[in-house]
Amino acid sequence: MISPSLDALRTALHLLGVAVWIGGQIVLAGVVPAVRAAAPDALGAVARAFARIAWPMFLLVVLTGVWGYSDVDVSARSTEYTVTFGIKMLLVAATAIAALIHSQGSSKAAKAIGGAAGLLTALAAAWFGVLLAHAG
To answer: In terms of DSSP H, where are the helices of 1-136?
Structure first.
């Protein structure tokens, strides 16, 4: 058996946070139309319940990401790695901003655009994370 390590725990926690943040958004995209049709007054409660879980998971992603990056010898990494990391950080920031616009927006347009942009930027950030994890 491979011995557990702190690095493995950090990676597992990071992936858990990513799974809940992104997976929850995908699940909500499927559930919200049904809730809107069956009980429109419940949408706010559903959103708040998701936020109580999702935002701490987003924080977990950020904290474990910072922890992981602190173990990277940046001087030994290529320019491509650094650029990819920079793009990923911009996508993470865009994800947070879009999610805040979605959650704080009062118009249907703000909620729709914020939600869609939040999910797309989160998916892109996850993809860039995969690229970084597979960098030589």
So the answer is: 6-38, 43-70, 79-104, 108-133
List all residues 6 or more positions away from 36 whose beta carbon is below 8 Å from its beta carbon: 43
Contact 79, 116 (CB under 8 A): no
pTM over 0.85: yes
Phi, psi of 81 (to 5 degrees): -60, -50
CA distance 81 to 94: 20
What is the mean pLDDT, run by run of 10 residues, along the chain of 136 residues? 95 98 97 95 95 98 96 92 96 98 94 96 98 87
